[in-house]
Amino acid sequence: MHLPGPLQEWIENLAAVYFEPPPGLGVDFTAPPGAPALFAPDSVAWRVFKNPLALIVGGIAAVILELAEPRVRAGVWTHTSFRADPLTRMKRTGYAAMVTVYAPAEAARAMIAAISHRHGAIAGYTETGAPYRADDPELLDWVQATASFGFVEAYRRYAAPLTPDEIDRFYAESAPAAGLYGAHGAPRSAAQCAALFADMAPKLERSEIIFEFLRLVSAAPLLPAPLKALQPTLIRAAVATLPAWARDQLGLGPSYRLHFAERQLLSALGAGGERLQLERAPAAQACRRLGLASDLLYRPHPHDKN
User: Fold this and answer.
1) What does pTM read for this prediction?
2) 1, 26, 68, 111: which could join 275 in a potential S-S bond, CB 3.0 to 4.6 Å?
């Protein structure tokens, strides 16, 4: 679906800011013609990652879970720019996800190799003296699991329904790319993700850094000025996406509760993201690279609720 010309152009210009490559991560999603991606066009991942609301809400949810693990938290808070510039750091993470899913496979592999190389140099100690390495297989599996969980849960809650088989497909499709990142034990189904969460739960803990992260995201220019008032709702939606036990364990109480009217609004926005075709987005560009209709991912699915 396209909106009337001027309105479509206005939205394309607003969205383009979020699809611009961060320094050092520029990839051409339109070339070379015919180059396959790591994920197939009929994958569940291609559907999920084209929805802006699912990306924002799912990304925040994933970071909350990552910061709940003390070793991941120490690595992220010490060795990245989250504290000084959370917006740029989140954009880099989001863009890396776009490259992984939609870019030519050769470009995706090159980017993943560079990220893995940087991870190999990150090590230190938590505030309690426990050692950590960013390339620790257990931590890589946890980060991959939190990302997959965050994105697929945000999509099915606020954008469009997914069957249990589709959710399992989403996890299974992600396994080869996760392996390139070093996450060879990443979950391949919803049941495996639940099992990993159960194994990791005793290691997760409440931290003031989680609340600081949420304050930073709330204050950052995450959305363009006309939509700035939505940011607290998006943060509450991300918290609501977490399992109930995780919210309790991390101390994310009633002040983060998502209200009924907010859920309705998010469902409307998510549904809009399913239909409003953004020609400059990586998803549409990847479709054109493969000679597919650029509206391929925006067509209704039989079980859609909208």
Assistant:
1) 0.91
2) 1
